[in-house]
Amino acid sequence: MAALVKSKPCRHACFFSGQSRSFSQFDSKMEEKMTNSQPSSFRLKPVQCLASALFVVAMIFGMASGESKSLPSKATKNLPKEEVLVPSGKTEAAASQRVVSLTFKQMGAWSAIKLRGVSGSQTLAFPIRADEIVVAAKLRLAYDYSPSLIPELSHLKIALNDRIAMIEALPKDKELGNSREIRLDPRMFNDMNFLTFTLIGHYTRQCEDPTHSSLWLTLSDLGRLELTLARIPTTPDLKTLPSPFLDKRETGSLRLPFVFASAPSLGTLRAAGIVSSWFGLQAGARGAQFPVLLNALPEGNAVVFLQAGESVFDIKATSAATVSIQPHPNNSLARLLVITGGTDDELMRAARAVALISPTLSGQQVTVTKETEAAPRQPYDAPAWIPTDRPVRFGELARPEELRVQGYYPDVIRLNYRVSPDLFTWRTPGTPIKLKYRATRLPNQHNSSLNISLNNHFLQALALNEPSKPGNPLEPSSSSTQNVTPNQELLHIAPYALNGRDQLQMAYYFDILKQGDCQDLPPDNLQAAIDAESTIDFSGFPHYTALPNLAYFANIGFPFTRMADLSETAVVLPESPNLDEMGLYLTLMGRMGEATGFPALKHAVVSSLDVDKMASRDLLVIGSAKNQALMNKWADYLPMVKINGERKVREPDAIWRPTYRWEQHDIQTTPLPKSTLNISDVGDLTALMAFESPLQAGRSVVFLYADKPVGLRKISDLLTDTERVASVHGDFAVIDDKSVNHAKVSATYYFGSLPWLSKVSWFFSDQPLLFALLGLLISILLATVAYRPLRRVIDRRFNKTA
User: What is this structure's pTM?
Assistant: First the structure.
């Protein structure tokens, strides 16, 4: 163990003679060897000495490596629910530490961890920020295991970065329960960390079946790793952006306040929206929120926007477009990203520099003298979206190592991608996938298979031991891989399975042949892979869909994200927006940047008084009942309206048209609402409403509404919650703290275009009576046109006969 630690020195601790004597004898010897073996440059750096001081303080408060204790009850009852990052104190020294709680799901476990076989294992990965060190760590887990396991021969091994952290016995009586709290040595942590759980299981002392059903252990997905992290001082430098405001390796949601000296102009808000969209795309799927403060600074990091003559505490604006990183006046460990300009245009120039050329910025302050412009975007060309004009290789969507698995019970291969949700797949078999796959050949075992699913919807099972299909056979395996079978298959994704953010799941199942006692010895090098040359092809489908559809908006920002730079989108704010309305706007721009992978450079921001000037754009309307004038102005178009204290929601027809036509899953059409439903007795309401723009046919409006401004925070929370956002549907969604209720009440309109033949077929597809009438009219017309020529033919024949 000492050799392992010695060969991989960690940056999270340095050692000196004054350390606490509470270390175990093993730790003391390991410390001595590491100290003697490291060069002087490793031992006495100031940052590492700070780490040592913090580490010793943690030791004094009872942290001991490898200590394990039982929790008083079952894990599923003991382990807390989702936790947030919490500072450990209010003083600057205490604020330099925080406690992070990482769930197993955040570390890569999609469900409960199931270990099977004589040596089943699974590894979870998690990073540590570059400007933080671990001073204490605690692993809380719960598990259950087979009662058939022999205690003397079976145990659970827990390793951190290939170093054994704990070996847990598996007694038969289970008197201590199956919940554990294990303290981990902070010196074992690196920048990137791997936590491995391994079951060493045996059910008999004689020869055993390594795939026997009694060899199992399941770790609860409620388990978590709690880390106490300490901040270390860093030198402010723009070249580190988006750090220290955002570390891409973190998994928790980003909350970054935006600060203005006073009520910002619409131009200043637009510049802030560009920067928030850039931070949103940098944060990725973890989500980001941007609360707004006026003439005040938070305790931690923040982004500050100032125009000439403005200041916040000691932070003052410059007269030119400037981007700088400055220390927080009240917290030496926090940083402020300060964006200043003499005018709105200069603020926009500085904001675009952050969004487009941040890798070229360096130093503590940069003056932006030249305008930064991006090339014009084309529809559906968002960098985060899969191209729809050509087949796309799997190798473009995942790294080669992510397409390979091994073992009796291999992990699921997951391929994530985003695609425009308006693809018209009506009356087609779906999206074609040319799948090329390999797996170790197991003779006489014909039940091995590759199971294909999309978003947990099963699609197809492919046999592994069948020969390659005719057509385009793969190249034969080399002599070194002659036991690996190449196969290929053409399959289709059902249209109804797509939702914009999709995951293609490919799970290998190996059938182990049972030959009898002491003879079941399958190969220990089972391997499988999906060929990177496999393709998925969305080309050939026109863009055409029925709107409004809040599911499109919530999942991927459509139709606003059709243009990645939001050049056809306008945000409509109240004449005097409050803090919650501005905060929701910035969070929404962050969500759009994450959805497209590109900053919202070309969106417009207007007040409700100037909304008529934006008729040619799709509109995002934000406001509360008393602060957004469009609530009354557009009362005849909204799914829900509140006038004179009375709230009404449109009520759809009692008889809905079917969602699915014939055997095909298809676009849903809804008749016009005939009445309204009074819901004035309902409490404070927060809702999303979608409808066709009153200003121009074919354009879309999404209204983000709350009775009270504070209710808009529920929408921000929803948009950054990857699980809850999937529950948004219809065109009217009521948002609660924990649930989303939705309805379809607005008139349907269509977005996009179809080839003329498809358009005619689509039009008549739900008009059988009209189609029959048209057929009858055509028949009568043809009969009328053909009557006289046919009459003349008959007359001539009659005359000849006569």
Answer: 0.77
